[in-house]
Structures are given as C-alpha cells and as structure tokens.
Amino acid sequence: MRSAAQADLAKYERALNRFFQIPASQRKTRDREKILKVLGLENPQEFLSMHIPLWEVRIDELLDPSCTDMLPISISHSYVNWVRGAIRLMPDGARVKILSSKLRTTGLKKAIFQLLSRMTAAPPRDFEVTDVQLVEKVHKDTLLTVRDPGGKTYSLYLSRFGCLGEYIHGGLPGLVGLPVLPVVHHMTPQGEEILLKPKEEGVNIFLDDGVTASRILREWSWWVEGVARQDALGDCIGTVLRYGHYVATPGKKVIMIDNIELFHLDETDVRIFEPIHDFLPRKVFPNDPNRREDLEGKMKTAYDKAYRDQMRIIVREWGEIERYLIQMRRHIRTYTGDVFEKVLANIKARVFGKR
Question: What domains can you pick out in the chain, each with its CATH number?
Fold first, then answer.
C-alpha cells in the first residue's frame, strides 16, 4: 500500500515539476486542469471555475512545492473561508500529495523529524503524511497526521502565525518544572517562518463541552493548581491570552497552548483573562450563589497557595531563566521591537516584585 502511494506521489511530483517549468505568465487553465487531474481531482474544470478572486493564482501558490502554505490567502481576508472550503473539497489524498511534495524543498521534513524526536524516546527513522486538514484556528492553520514504518501515527499542527512568540515561550516552562508541549521553529530556505507542534491531548478547561459540573467537582483541585502555576509564569513574562488556552491532559497536567503574545508587562496592558476560581464555580452553580461562593473560596485558597509556591520556584530558578532569555535575545528583540535589556529588566522586576 505504501509503495503504491509513493509511486502515486512520484508521478504527481514529476507532473508538478513540468507545471512549474512553465512561466507563471504563460500558464493556461488547461495546464492547471492537467496537474489537478494528476493530483486526483475528478472534475478539475469545476474546481477551477469557483468564483474566488485570483483563484487560479491561489491554486498555483497552493501547489508550489517551495511554499509550506496550505491556505494561500491571509486569514484576515474576506474570502478566507471560501478558499479554505474549496481546498477542503479536494479529495483527502490530493491534500496529502500537495503537502508531501513540499517536505524536502522547504526543509519541512527535517523539522518534522526534529519535533518527533522531542515527542518520543524512540523517534522514527522515516514517516509518511497520511492526512491533511485545514482548521479554523488563528494559531494553527494545518493539522497533519504522519505515520511511521511501525504504523504509529502522530498528529501535528503546522502554524504560520505567531510563531516566534510560541517558540520563545516553549523553552520557559520546563525551566521551572511546568509541563509544556515541544515546538520546532523553522525558517525555510525561501524565508518562510513556521512552527510545528503536536496536537494537544486533553480537555480545554474553558472551552470544551466536556467540562461538565460533575467533572469540575471531580477534577477541580489539580486543574486549579495547574492553572495557578502556569499563571505565575505567565504573569512574569507577560502572556496575554489566557481564556481558552489551558488544557488539562490525560496525565493530569495543565499545559498552556498558543502562547503567541508575550512580554506585555505594563500594568495597563490588557489581558484576555478570567480567573479559573471565578469561572468554574459559576459553571457548576449558576443559580446557587451560596454554594458558588463556597466553592470560589476553596478554589481561590488552592489557587493562591499553588501560585505562591510556583513563584518561589521561579525566583529560585531565575539564573536559568535569565540565561535562556539571553540566549534568545535576538529573537526577543525581533519579537518586541524593543531593547532586550529593557525587556529583561521588566521580567526581572516582575519575578522579584511578586515574592
């Protein structure tokens, strides 16, 4: 089965090479029909006739093996949902071949290997892409599934938005004993910036429907502690996005996801944030203020205790944190547009001012 898929991909890549040998200004609709037919679309004429501005140009961008983008339009564009919807209408195998054809030229294959090596103690020597989905999330636009020769699958996000912030954040939680998902920051030879990360497993504490009242009453103690510890670090480095960014994993750890906004350290900076000790009791007892207040008090006490303990750890490990930030100084300067020493001083003031 795999050899057949490889042969099919090789056939597509040969056709793709011929297609891109035609100068962009000379490509015709019939040229695109041919490559889409090889890709596996039964009716390429119908696909090409969609009423989307510059649609044929966007198709060329999608097929371009030197570009990692599976959504060739800005996420803020008014037609983004049309383009995403059109690409979703492609056969599953077509999207797989498109992304697979991009792996080597962009260096994406090497970056995926790097991520897999951080996800598992025995990283695979090879993999194949088996599924590609476009997701409607600002922080993650492509979800891909890869399978190793032993049949084990891994679900990974490929993101092109807010990459540098997540990359900088990714090295900090582990320094202070907090769980974190591994990330790989990659610059393609063509100058594209991307971020790879595993699909998180678990429940989004603020957003998932599975967070029922009974589950909250059963799980809240470790949820609140985990959130408090992540908040302590977040307050020190100025993370902004909190609501909907806490995930409780099957291993009873709380991780933060999609940390694209960092170093908002002024008191006037706005945070998208609702304390967990306010949110959960209101969800459990929406119409019972007495029981809600009682639960709020218990959660607030547990939250404050864990927060203070985590702050002690952060203070103790400040030397490691400072060394890491200095190593990342070029990225931090690029990210903030500010003088690194000023950012570092603000973080240090937060750390030692919160004891």
Answer: 2-159 (no CATH), 203-353 (1.10.1070.11)
